[in-house]
From TrEMBL:
The keyword NADP does not apply. Residues 5-244 form the ABC transporter domain. It comes from Methanorbis rubei. It holds the Pfam family ABC_tran. One of its GO terms (biological process) is phosphate ion transmembrane transport. GO terms for cellular component: membrane. Keywords: ATP-binding, Nucleotide-binding, Transport. This is Phosphate import ATP-binding protein PstB 3. SMART domains: AAA. The keyword Transport applies. GO terms for molecular function: ATP binding; ATP hydrolysis activity; phosphate transmembrane transporter activity.
Amino acid sequence: MTSVIQTNNLNLSYGTKQALFEVNFPFAEKKVTALIGPSGCGKSTLLRCLNRMNDLIPTCKIGGEILFRDENILNADPVELRKHIGMVFQRPNPFPKSIYDNIAYGPRAHGEHDASTLDKIVETSLKGAALWDEVKDRLHDSALGLSGGQQQRLCIARTLAVSPEIILMDEPCSALDPIATSKIETLITDLKKNYTVIIVTHNMQQAARVSDTTGFMYIGKLVEVNDTKKIFSNPAEELTERYVTGRFG
């Protein structure tokens, strides 16, 4: 397995409360990895470490290392890092701008202002997020007029526009109905042809459907990481088995 990013002895605390303990997790390249576990177990905290989002919390302290292409990202420029490692949040968060300007925002911020180049980026990104056919005739309408599921795919397109290598998704379907969820899940499966996808989900059926690898976390510790089929059919750890079979607690 080739890992594109991995954590080595990763510890994280918020003030006096430790949230992650000695997490060692290699994330495979161009695969979908799911993080599962009960609420408050540290899975979203781990996800946010991978593009330094936790830097925004003043009390946060991190130890250990996170290697992306063998470079420790804890020493990297976070703005530069987020060009390579994009993030899609739990609730769709389109900017109050047109559909076009939402997608063009990132490339413009990184210095791209050529109109024909931006047009191509917008079209390619929307196609990559399986949204182009639904919005190509209203690119200059407000993104806020899209449905929730369309807004979430727009946010994925906005992430794709700066050509990342890794896409982080923090419960991307939790605010969506079943039809929109199905579209996002199909999209996630398509995205791994070109991107590494790491998803936090509270929905174990979703993890089983979309991921190649699953990591189970409990109270800030990585209990087990393995092939998704093995995690759900024959886990190595009793705690994992109790969680995936619903006998937890």
